[in-house]
Amino acid sequence: MSDTQEKKNNKKKSATPAKRFNFSLWYLVAVLLALFIAQAYMGGGKSEPLSYSRFKELLNEDAVKRVIITQENIRGEAMIDSAGVSVLTPFEAVRVDDPDLVKQLEEKGIDFEGRFESDWLKGFFFAWVLPLGIIILLWSFLIRRMGGGGGSGGLMSFGKSRAKVYMESATKINFKDVAGIDEAVEELKEVVEFLKQPAKFRALGAQIPKGVMLVGPPGTGKTLLAKAVAGEASVPFFSISGSDFVEMFVGVGAARVRDLFQQAQAKAPCIVFIDELDALGKARGASPWASHDEREQTLNALLVEMDGFESSKGVIIMAATNRPEILDMALMRPGRFDRQVVVDPPNIDGREAILKVHIRGKKISKDVNLRLIAARTPGFVGADLANSINEAALLAARRGKKEIEMPELEEAIDREMTGLERRSRVLTPKTKEKIAYHECGHAIVGAKLPNTDPVHRVSIIPRGTATLGHTLYLPSEEQYLISKQEIIDKIKVALGGRAAEEIIYGEITSGAYSDLQQVTAMARAMVMDYGMSEKLGQVVYRRRGHTPRDNPFQTQDDYYGEDTAQLIDQEVKEIIDRCYTEALQILRGNQDLLRNMAAELLKVEMLEGDKLAEFLGKDRITDYSEHIQTKDAPEPPAESPKEDDDDSVGHNLDKSG
Ligand code: ADP
Ligand code: MG
Ligand code: ZN
To answer: Which of 135, 294, 304, 362 has CA 20 to 30 A from 379's CA?
Structure first.
């Protein structure tokens, strides 16, 4: 049992201290068990169990030779028939209250003795050792669980840090090994430049980024990218994984971090890479269960170190996470991880490029069509593609082929795909088509309305972290001044997805759920908060912080009675209905555009820049280069991390500009 738990809890670490601890516990239990068994058999080998009446019979037949009487049983030796011969056999019978026994034994002249046998060992074992053992086991198990699911910290592992700092003086990886995520590579080239020639930048007094955060779903190549940066700049690469810190005793992680930065500064220019930062940088106080002193201390140490050193020395800190939304805000502050690089899953071109990288050094048949493979694998990330190629190579070897051919690749993809389908990351063609129409619906309605933000990307690539780029346009009076017409247009845009589905398929899907949520919230805010409804006038009907959602029963705290409530509901519905009708109208008037654009989107999966301009017009889209620049500013946190799962038709229309 301890063994399987170990395996589950540490994926890769060889768990020495905890294992040692468990071993010694089991050792103790085993010794006691052995003692217990030995005691049970003490005073003789196998003895024949007899009933008391049989014992008495033997006694009467003068077969019994020797008797030992204890509180609980009677043991001894007797001539017992076995296969026709009488043999002297040890026996044992449970003692029965029999006052005549002693008299009888005396009469027969049998040698007998009374013995007081204490069962203290047995009692001790069952009353103390066993329960204690169970409690300790449970306890250590729980502690491990509370450690954030990270590893097998357990009780005795303090002082022994398993958070190893890996130092590679030269990663043999460079940008040639990274494909399909050109945007991210482009952004990191500057970092490489700086690492190569820090003096040049220093002389100009240029502001150098201190921390670069790579954000993207698992397997998109974040770790690879960080190594490639080090490889390109040929600088040492220090790496450590956030999850290693979680299980350690208080103080060790913080010491490690300080140590890491000291080492790094000595080797500057270099890169310090913190993988799986989310394990460490989880918003403080997120879990009510365990005190995460260690994680907090480590995080604080990291922040202190980051603040304390000058990036001009040439140490650049990179970090990777696939869950930016749970990170502590303090990490994103200027002077820390103030630059975020988004690593998106690749589109079809990207997938083809990644495949090309991974067939390097492998024997591949000439008639393998990588473009076709790329087309067949929407939703695959770099790691999936790398796996597929490897699997195909194995298959080819098993089949005794000299080269990898198309059938192997196809089969490898199918295998990978079933795995991914289970994780619901790959879409059926039909669903993809629906999503394409849905997203184009949003984009076209947006482009045809005057008061909307320009569109910068339309994509049907499933995104692992759905919140990324999916900016929520809930008008919030603390942040924006927003006009009535702007809200109305936003509502129309949000309804464009469903409107497109209705026009093309004559039916609607659940995929617009989160659109509708936004729409409802916006319309309600118009009526209840901003006084934008003629019928209800310039009145605020809702107390801040007391939205009906916080407390559905607390209506008297809001500023309206039941009649008004009805009126509000009517007005909200009317606004939405009107907007929906208009969205339908816009799309009906642009059906050809809708069909053409969706067809193109299905083919290339992501429309951006010039391609997008072909459909929407140059002034209705954001410039590609502009988009890269805006990324320098830290993105605002997603307001409510939205689960991707309840929302089978994706909402990848990225409206952030
Ligand atoms: P992440 O850190 O984002 O989870 P990794 O960098 O660990 O992903 O990727 C795992 C492996 O998948 C890499 O070692 C590489 O072989 C392959 N891979 C992932 N993304 C790419 C990419 N963009 N180009 C080439 N190979 C990739
Ligand atoms: Mg990684
Ligand atoms: Zn939508």
So the answer is: 362
